[in-house]
Design brief:
Elements (H helix, E strand, L loop, with lengths): L5 E6 H11 L14 H17 L3 E5 L6 H6 L12 H4 L1 H11 L4 E2 L6 H14 L3 E5 L13 E6 L5 E4 L1 H8 L6 H9 L14 H11 L2 H6 L6 H8 L2 H11 L21 H11 L2 H10 L8 E2 L8 E2 L25 H5 L12 E4 L4 H10 L4 E8 L9 E9 L2 E6 L4 H15 L5 E4 L2 H9 L9 E3 H8 L7 H9 L6 H5 L14 H28 L3 H21 L1 E3 L1 H26 L8 H11 L18 H8 L3 H20 L6 E2 L4 E2 L2 E3 L9 E3 L11 H6 L3 E2 L5 E8 L2 H10 L2 H8 L4 H9 L9 H15 L4 H7 L4 H14 L1 H17 L1 E3 L5 E3 L8 H37 L5 E6 L2 E7 L3 H13 L10 E6 L2 H4 L1
Parallel strand pairs: 1-2, 1-4, 2-3, 4-5, 9-12, 10-13, 13-14
Antiparallel strand pairs: 5-6, 7-8, 10-11, 11-12, 15-17, 15-20, 16-17, 18-19, 21-25, 21-26, 22-23, 24-25
Helix pairs in contact: 1-2, 2-5, 2-14, 5-13, 8-9, 8-12, 13-14, 18-23, 19-22, 20-22, 23-36, 24-27, 26-27, 29-35, 29-36, 31-32, 33-34, 34-35, 35-36, 36-37
Length: 948
């Protein structure tokens, strides 16, 4: 007797949603800026089911238009559902196309849910002698379970479990799976907005099922209930019966199970590969090809003259366990990609590798001889800490062949460690050997402590990935998991979590150091092979070679140099701020009539809006307390002195804690200077960001904020600080890119662009422009870059909303090419999914075609702003590289210290001052040629404030 045939019915949206949210912390964004998380998650799940079970028959069932019958019964059915995420909406057409290419039937019926389609098909298939497996995590399907119909559902920790009658009986405490309908009807379902019986939860519903058997049985015997429960159930009889109807999966959808149509067929391999290639699914392509190649029957090229096409076949063979490297979407209740895939990714323990530590003496000499014969080597330093200024080398790993690598441990004795470095010096200073690494800036800074300069061509995988996919995270673990399906050893596995029991790297056994360190070098080498091709595909190779990699060396030098800080001045400023803050506190308490915690939003809200009643209808937060954010208070400040005092109190308190008191603590003891860390891979626009400490966000608009810059001083009395600032570079760029002649001409004549704009939009002579008119024109000039609206302009000026609208309309009429440029940028983004800077740096805008107007509007503003801000970032990077090269070539004592958006700060040796001023101005103004001349303002001083 032949084995009973099996049908698998997949609940499409259940798996698509799980796939999307599995990657919510680390969405899969391809080089076009498309969020492919939902597609990847769903397809991996589908392939996993096929590979595990080798079903005879298979179909994927979708919803379409919701359940017309249920909405007719109950208008609020599923009305509380959030809007479907954009990443899922855009995934559906792709998934449909892939399923068609795989020759998998798509079952969908307008006005019915997938539950109903699956319910109907499972019953029809049962009558024809099939065993049906409903692939879904949704427990509502338990009502459909019979001797031949099963749930095939996820379990925590990975894999699947099959629910038959015994499992449903145990889970729901029922005697018949059909009673699950009564159970769901009684307790309701908040996700579907099924009301249920008031006061009845899971435990009570199970008790009622055991006692009365069904909803009808309960409602016919309410005399057996007591107290409020009796009252509630009797008052909701109609609601209970309605809820049961809503929870019942329909079995009469007009669809037909035709066994022949549902057979698992040969996929159109080339078509699937083509779609996967478009989506940039490399691993998934491999998974697909493996799935449709059984152990005994692999893909073969036909020798028949009628076909030269590679054909991949499947046999209806049951496979109960997933193969190595399998991805299982199921089994992760926390919906994290890490939990979902941790049991399927490759690791050091499951991968073939040869990692070897190198002993001192002759072994090291032989290793270095081999090392010097290579043309491209990945290296990774292991150190005693994360601060490169103080960290000491524990070892260095090297890899130049996938799966293989070497580890040189370093002795604690500094002299002996330097001895090993001297042996390695020819490698690091070789101009012909390419050096590969992940975050090479750190390694370069560590090696600089040992007086080693890393020369030759560099390839940094972190920077490469940043250019390929700027919106994703770029740390090695994420890259390894995303591109190599590999989970590296965690540092906490090696040294433990933070705390007194955490080991230093020196305390880790050599064998474990070797495995951990060489794995990093090996994985980075493999990532380089991936990213090398993708840089070309994204047209960012030149940006990588000419800007980001050279800049890496510049930033390393700036960070090592650091900047001198006047701690005594900051201490005195802190005392002054204390007095100012205390004075403001007293004024606030006097106006409020009592003392309270000004820093507490709850207490502040009660004082302002309950006691003082400053607003008739104050806004509240989701938690029910009054909203006291800066946006709310700023609007009220001009009418209420206490509000302005509160804003000043907040500003001074933040200034004191974030900068005045914090900066002295960040002076490095070994150098006596502050060393910020410039991050190249954070801002998607290409701007650098400053960290530990952040020197780019020191307030400049307030007098006290400006005072903080006074604390940054030259090296000594023989030096002075020079600040070089691009004048209105973003306006110059937008004028040049838009080819707006009126604006270009104003810049070429050296006119005050804001006064020039005011003259034109207010129709007055340039000499008659008032201060207020210039101020309003300046707000519009800069606001246009950021998509300012009439509402936004009215908030930033004294103009009314109608006056603001009129000013913006007049502005666009004055500069028509500027308006066309803005429209063209948005259209380009809609067509291509990205915009780019003058150097081709891409900013991907995955929401540019969103149906949500607010989300789409933000993307449209970015489409205009990103090329402008990004081009400014590109230009100053070019200037930094050229200036650094000139300073190095001229062996100047002057050093470049800081970059703050459009400004560079130098520690200038006074005898070199005039030469440096000419050098800096020339290189900055000629960094990139636009139709509009670039202009740089130079200032010097005994501190940063004086020089600004």
């Amino acid at each position: 007797m032949s084995e009973q045939k099996r049908l698998f019915l997949v609940d499409a949206y259940a798996l698509i949603f799980r796939g999307y949210y599995a990657f919510i912390k680390n969405p899969r964004i391809n080089s076009k800026g498309e969020d492919t998380s939902a597609i990847m998650g769903f397809m991996n799940s589908l392939l996993d089911v096929i590979k595990r079970e080798r079903p005879d028959h298979l179909a994927v069932c979708f919803d379409k238009g919701g359940s017309a019958d249920r909405v007719e019964m109950f208008e609020a059915y599923k009305a509380n559902r959030d809007e479907t995420p954009e990443g899922i909406k855009t995934a559906i057409p792709y998934i449909m196309e892939i399923l068609k290419a795989m020759h998998i039937p798509i079952m969908v019926k307008e006005g019915y849910e997938a539950d109903d389609v699956i319910g109907t098909l499972s019953r029809q298939a049962e009558k024809e002698g099939y065993k049906t497996y409903m692939v879904t995590p949704d427990k509502d399907f338990a009502q459909l379970v019979t001797e031949n119909i099963f749930m095939y559902r996820p379990v925590f920790g990975g894999g699947y479990e099959t629910w038959g009658i015994p499992e449903v009986q145990k889970k729901f405490e029922v005697t018949d799976p059909m009673q699950v309908i009564d159970f769901l009807g009684m307790m309701g379902d908040s996700s579907d907005n099924i009301p249920g019986l008031p006061g009845v939860g899971e435990k009570t519903a199970k008790k009622f099922i055991a006692q009365f058997g069904s909803m009808e049985g309960l409602l016919a015997n309410t005399d057996q209930l007591k107290g409020k429960m009796k009252e509630k159930v009797e008052g909701a009889k109609e609601l209970g019966l309605l809820s049961k109807k809503l929870a019942t999966i329909m079995l009469d959808v007009p669809v037909t199970f035709n066994a022949k149509d549902f057979e698992l067929d040969h996929p159109d391999v080339e078509k699937v590969k083509e779609i996967f290639q478009e989506l940039e699914f490399r691993r998934l392509t491999d998974n697909f090809l493996k799935t449709f190649s059984s152990e005994t029957e692999t893909a073969q090229t036909s020798t028949e003259k009628t076909s030269e096409k590679t054909e991949i076949k499947t046999t209806p063979k049951e496979v109960k366990s997933a193969g190595a490297g399998q991805f299982s979407l199921f089994g992760a209740e926390d919906n994290s990609a890490e939990a979902i895939t941790s049991n399927s990714r490759k690791t050091l323990g499951t991968s073939s590798h040869f990692y070897q530590s190198v002993a001192s003496g002759i072994a090291t000499k032989l290793f270095i001889k081999n090392l010097m014969n290579q043309t491209s080597v990945c290296f990774d330093t292991e150190t005693t800490g994360l601060n490169p200024i103080t960290a000491e080398l524990v070892g260095i790993a090297f890899s130049w062949e996938v799966g293989k690598g070497f580890y040189l441990p370093f002795p604690e004795n500094k002299g002996e460690a330097q001895g090993i470095i001297e042996q390695l010096r020819p490698f690091f200073e070789s101009e012909t050997i390419e050096k590969i690494g992940q975050n090479l800036k750190y390694d370069i800074k560590v090696l600089a402590k040992y007086n080693v300069t890393v020369k030759g061509k560099l390839f940094d995988t972190m920077l490469a990935h940043y250019l390929i996919n700027p919106d994703m995270r770029h740390n090695m673990d994420v890259l390894a998991e995303t591109y190599l399906n590999y989970t590296p050893i965690s540092i906490t596995e090696l040294i433990g979590k933070k705390g007194k029991n955490q080991l230093s790297m020196r305390e880790v056994p050599l064998e474990k150091q070797t495995e951990y360190a060489v794995e990093d070098a090996d994985i980075t080498l493999q990532l380089k092979e991936h990213f090398q091709n993708e840089l070309g595909e994204a047209n960012t190779q030149k940006l990588f070679d000419d800007i980001e990699i050279p800049l890496l060396r510049v930033l390393a030098a700036m960070e090592l140099e650091g900047i001198n800080l006047d701690k005594g001045f900051l201490n005195s400023l802190s005392e002054q701020l204390n007095k100012d803050i205390t004075h403001l506190e007293a004024k606030i308490y006097e106006a409020a009539g009592e003392e309270f915690n000004i820093a507490s939003p709850k207490q502040l809200g009660e004082i302002l809006f309950d006691k003082m009643k400053l607003v008739d209808k104050p806004k509240k937060t989701k938690t029910g307390q009054y909203a006291t954010g800066e946006d709310i208070l700023s609007y009220l400040a001009k009418d209420h002195e206490i509000i302005q005092n509160i804003l000043d109190f907040r500003g001074l308190s933040k200034l004191k804690s974030t900068y005045v008191d914090a900066l002295p603590l960040q002076v490095e003891e070994t150098t006596g200077r502050v060393h910020t860390d410039y991050m190249q891979t954070v801002a998607a626009t290409g701007r650098l960001s400053s960290n530990n400490p952040n020197l780019q966000n020191i307030p400049i608009r307030t007098e006290r904020g400006r005072q903080v810059r006074k604390a940054f001083i030259p090296r000594n009395k023989d030096y002075t600080l020079l600040a070089a600032d691009y004048s209105q570079i973003e306006l110059r760029i937008i004028a040049a890119l838009s080819k707006e002649e009126t604006m270009i001409e104003a810049f070429k004549k050296g006119e005050d662009i804001h006064a020039s704009t005011a003259s034109k939009v207010f129709n007055v002579a340039l000499s008659e422009v008032t201060r207020e008119q210039r101020s309003n024109a300046k707000t519009v000039n800069f606001g246009i870059i950021y998509g300012v609206s009439a509402f936004g302009l009215s908030n930033q000026t004294d103009l009314s909303r109608s006056e603001s609208k009129e000013l913006i309309d007049t502005y666009y009429a004055t500069y028509p090419k500027l308006r066309n440029f803005i429209h063209d940028q948005v259209d380009f983004a809609r067509d291509n999914g990205y915009v780019q800077t003058v150097l081709g740096r891409r900013r991907y805008l995955k929401d540019i075609n969103s149906r949500n107007a607010i989300v789409r509007g933000a993307a449209e503003r970015n489409a205009v702003n990103a090329p402008i801000q990004g081009s400014a970032a590109d230009i100053i990077k070019i200037a930094m590289i050229k200036i650094y090269e000139k300073l190095q070539a001229g062996n100047y004592k002057t050093k470049m210290l800081l970059q703050v958006h459009d400004e560079l700060v130098f520690d200038v040796y006074k005898p070199e001052l005039e030469t440096i001023k000419t050098l800096v101005k020339t290189e900055m103004e000629n960094a990139y040629k636009l139709e509009v001349p670039l202009d740089v303002d130079l200032d010097i001083g005994d501190n940063w404030l004086e020089a600004h």
